[in-house]
């Protein structure tokens, strides 16, 4: 049976208020432990954890390169909510 590689593309960290509780380090370490080639952090309505995420993955990848392993892929994103009526009230419509 062929093994498929899996990557989570919608992960919320503790920066997603009331939606995530794991730290960036915990999420990355768990993904690596599960032999995932990468992970996406897509917090709700903010990108407060992106620098921490990129910095931590960079440190992890430095260690992986020294051991001859492939780099872990960091995918950044953000889950945004758009209210259609809100932007209509701010536009100047003729």
Describe the 3D structure.
The protein has 94 residues and is α+β, with helices and mostly antiparallel strands. The protein has one domain. The chain is 36% helix and 15% strand. The protein has three helices and two strands. The chain has helices at residues 24-33, 50-66, 84-90; strands spanning 38-44, 73-79. Strands 1-2 form a two-stranded parallel sheet. Strand 1 (38-44), helix 2 and strand 2 (73-79) form a beta-alpha-beta unit. The radius of gyration is 17 Å and the shape is elongated.
Terminus-to-terminus distance: 62 Å
Tell me the fraction of residues in β-strands, as a range: 5-15%
Q: Order of strands side by side in the largest beta sheet?
A: 1-2
Helix content: 25-40%
Would you count the extended β strands for me?
A: 2
The biggest beta sheet reads: 2 strands, parallel
Q: Assign the structural class, choosing from mainly alpha, mainly beta, alpha/beta, alpha+beta, or little secondary structure.
A: alpha+beta
Mean pLDDT across residues: 89
**Rough outline:** elongated
């Amino acid at each position: 049976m062929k093994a498929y590689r899996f990557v989570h593309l919608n992960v919320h960290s503790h920066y997603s208020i009331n939606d995530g509780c794991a730290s960036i380090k915990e999420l990355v370490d768990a993904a690596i432990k599960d032999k995932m080639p990468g992970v996406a952090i897509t917090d709700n309505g903010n990108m407060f954890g992106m620098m921490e995420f990129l910095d931590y993955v960079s440190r992890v990848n430095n260690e992986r390169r020294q051991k001859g392993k492939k780099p872990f892929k960091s995918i950044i994103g953000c889950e945004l909510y758009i209210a259609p009526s809100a932007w209509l009230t701010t536009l100047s419509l003729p």
